[in-house]
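Researcher: I'm preparing a figure for a lab meeting and need a structural model of a single chain. I don't have an experimental structure, so a prediction will have to do for now. The sequence is pasted below. Please return the structure as tokens so I can convert it later.
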Amino acid sequence: MIRLLLVDDQMIIRQGLRSLLESQADFQIVGEAENGEKAITYIKTHYQTIQQPDIILMDIRMPIMDGVAATQAISQNFPDINILVLTTFDDDEYVSQAMRYGAKGYLLKDTPLQQLANAIRSVIEGYTQMGPGLLEKIFTPSPQVIPEKLPQEIEELTPREREVLRLIASGASNKEIANSLYITERTVKNHVTSILSNLGLRDRTQAAILANSFLHLLGD
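Model: Understood. Here is the structure written out token by token.
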């Protein structure tokens, strides 16, 4: 059994990752943390217990302590714990810093499930994992995992906001969304702002990643 710790400041992103990864029979999510500092606290509390993670899926940009600083601290003090960076950013500098500090590789958060699962297993076996390119965004939902219901935060969106969220997941621009829904681009922008605020997300990329985890529940 491969034990994983999910570290990301967005609860809803952690929820999406958990939903995907728990479908794998050899994976166990032992904990979650919203920033690097809390990840280190978790490790100190559970080190050399059955709740110690074998691998950490680490976000890069987080408040209090980001993923780069956390990777450095964990690699120095707990070198037997592997770190795989998951990012939505095209920021080579952050990724290269994390790699220098001991991360075993990086992937985009929207990497398809089987590719992510195989990367995790490869890291455990001692291999380094590099994503196919941070400039490519892959928004393909995994056919192997079918969540049964929407998170409450998405349930509370208006029907129109859910339509916009579904179209964001498809990669549609504001203009394309406006044409599809017969509304103005200004209205689309207002909906996008509301969606990001209500879901506690930073940008459209995070919204697309999240929506793809629940695309079948957002309607056609």
